[in-house]
Amino acid sequence: MAIRELATFNIVRRGEDYRITIEDASGETTEFTADYDALDLISEAIDEALDSDEEEVLEVDEDEEEEK
């Protein structure tokens, strides 16, 4: 399976669970159902990924500001 580019995602609560809809750049959508615990794990994984890249991303932004 080829890696696809993320275009949009949406999370909607449905009763006790959540429906996650992910759309790729070509318009293809995939839906998942997740409970609170699964959504919490996704949130933690996103936070960890962003935290680990924060310094690198901020350095790039600072370099761009200095060039202006």
Rg of Cα set: 16 Å
In percent, how much strand structure appears in the residues? 25-35%
Number of strands: 3
Helices and strands: which structural class? alpha+beta
Number of helices: 1
Which labels suit this protein?
single chain; 68 residues; 2 domains; three-stranded antiparallel beta sheet
Description:
With 68 residues, the chain is of the alpha+beta class. It has two domains: 1-34, no CATH class; 36-68. 47% of the residues lie in helices and 34% in strands. The chain is built from one helix and three strands, in the order βββα. It has one helix at 36-67; strands at 6-14, 17-24, 29-34. Strands 1-2-3 form a three-stranded antiparallel beta sheet. Strand 2 (17-24) and strand 3 (29-34) form a beta hairpin. The protein is extended and about 50 Å long. 0% of the residues are buried. The mean pLDDT is 89.
Task: Give a quick precis of the structure.
This protein folds into two domains: 1-34, no CATH class; 36-68.
List the helices and strands and how they pair.
Blueprint: E1 6-14, E2 17-24, E3 29-34, H1 36-67
Antiparallel strand pairs: 1-2, 2-3
